[in-house]
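FW: tagging you since you asked about this chain on Friday. Here's the raw sequence from the shared folder, copied in full. Didn't touch anything.
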Amino acid sequence: MATALLCLAGLDAAHAAPAGPGWAAVGQLLQTFDGAGATKGSKAVAKVGSGPSSLIDYQEMSVRCLGKKDWDSLSATQRTQFIASLKGLVEQRYYPRWRKIFGKGKVTFQDETAQGGDIVVRTKLLLGKKEELLAWRVADQSGAQKIVSLSVSNSDLLERLKSRIKARQQKVGFDALLAWMKGRSSEDMGSSSGSALASAGGSRTGSSSIVMPIAAVRSPGLSAGAAASISD
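HL: got it, structure written out here
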């Protein structure tokens, strides 16, 4: 899978060997933010370009945001509502940023490690003349690898969402939380710090300099410092 994705990106397939299933999942997600992908004719590209939300595990993100105890206490309807609210929030708040940032920049694979049942994929983002270290957390649910978080500059997307959502839930209750999440989808959710960048753990599966160019939206007003908004 990783080999096929790198071929789609115009890279030498021989360089794909060190990468594993985590990088394949990240590569698929990055391809969905490639505006040129929709114009290519291959079935593989069409599949990859089906949308980023199919490659993000919003159910697992929801469980981790609320904690298993609170999640188990919800009804099936409440769970469905929460997943939809979280998905809408991320889509509206982050997708436009990611299209601009990953469109302007270039992502370079560093390594991937097993950590706490997940796969942590470390990459570098070259944006202008600035390099940022990104760590993608990939969950493996029944053999399907999907993204559950992304860290940059010591800021973890899932941890930031979790801290704000839990604080709001404790203050106003579940129903009001859902309304707040829907209302905050396109607004600022604050600037409190998240967890530290995912650290390396488990066994490395590779450390070559694989490059995934993402040729999507080019925004002349997007500065290198905008990388901080990836998980803000």
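FW: The CA atoms of residues 84 and 167 lie 19 Å apart.
HL: agreed, and Helices lie at 2-8, 21-32, 43-48, 58-66, 68-72, 76-104, 157-172, 174-183.
FW: great, closing this out.
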